Amino acid sequence: MITAKFATECNIAIRNHVPIFPRWKDYKDKDLIFKDFREKVGLKFDTDITKAPYQRACVTMMKKGIRQQRYKLKKKYFDPFPLHLVPTTSPIPHMTDEQWGDLVNSWKEHKKLETCQGNRANRGKVQLHQTTGSRSYDIYIETLGDKYNDEPPNALELFKECHYSKKRKAFTPAVQSVINEIERKITDPTEDGEQPNVTEAVSAMLVRKTKKNRFLHNVGIQNKTGTSNAMRRELEAELIREKQGSNELRALVDKQRQQMDAMAKQMQEAEAARAKHDEEMKQKQAETDALLKRLISMIPNNT
């Protein structure tokens, strides 16, 4: 509870008092900002703000909070607008217009825009979105309380809990499809007539549907039955994905190289056409000058 309150007070102090710079290293020589932040948070707790553990905790929370606040500002004041319509004055009182301008210019950098576009595309590929919010899996599971009084929840039940949208009161189509496949798999008996292992079924399905199967590890379930097979399948699937990624990257590089070669060829052709045009213009100008000279020479000199 104290940790949660400390994190909350740190976030409040960042939102209300700390300017947001483009990079964390921009704060390195800003001792006054760190001091002001430690003092404002320390007012809420009975602690010695000069102690090293407290100062290290403040730096850690400040670093995380600034990154989150930078993301929120970008999402609210930068992403929805065309570049020429992004606000030029600071929308928050504790940042000057100059500081806001530096932050906006960092977002406008070509490399930054490409990185954000790539991250946005990668997020769009995620099918199984967790619904635990900002809480970690273990903390979220603790909030379930006495819901599973008789025995701890199995892997499928935890998967449902962590992927159920309380806002929509339903699973997403992708999550519902995975749940249906797992339930169908665990209800069909194996070749030796035994009931399939729920944890192994969930693990095998997540290996197929996710790039990195970490859910069972994050919720604290150890897959004892068929662990080696699941790990082998996961490694094989990861190798296939890496190979596919390498092929896609190679194809992308080849395509870009072809485009660059085509652009270079077009530039050479344009340069040759321009040189030819200049040469023709010079020749025409020389012919015109020669004609004018002949005409002038034909005019009688009355003087």
Topology, pairings included?
Blueprint: H1 2-17, H2 31-42, H3 52-77, H4 97-108, H5 110-124, H6 137-142, H7 155-163, H8 173-187, H9 198-209, H10 215-218, H11 227-298
Helix pairs in contact: 1-3, 2-3, 8-9, 9-11
Keywords summarizing the entry:
flat; 303 residues; mainly alpha; Probable_transposase_24; 11 helices; Transposase; 66% helix; coiled coil
Description:
- It contains eleven helices and no strands.
- Helix 1 (2-17) packs across helix 3 (52-77).
- It is 66% helix and 0% strand.
- The chain is an all-alpha fold and 303 residues long.
- The chain has helices spanning 2-17, 31-42, 52-77, 97-108, 110-124, 137-142, 155-163, 173-187, 198-209, 215-218, 227-298.
- Among the domains are: 2-124; 137-225, no CATH class.
- The chain is flat.
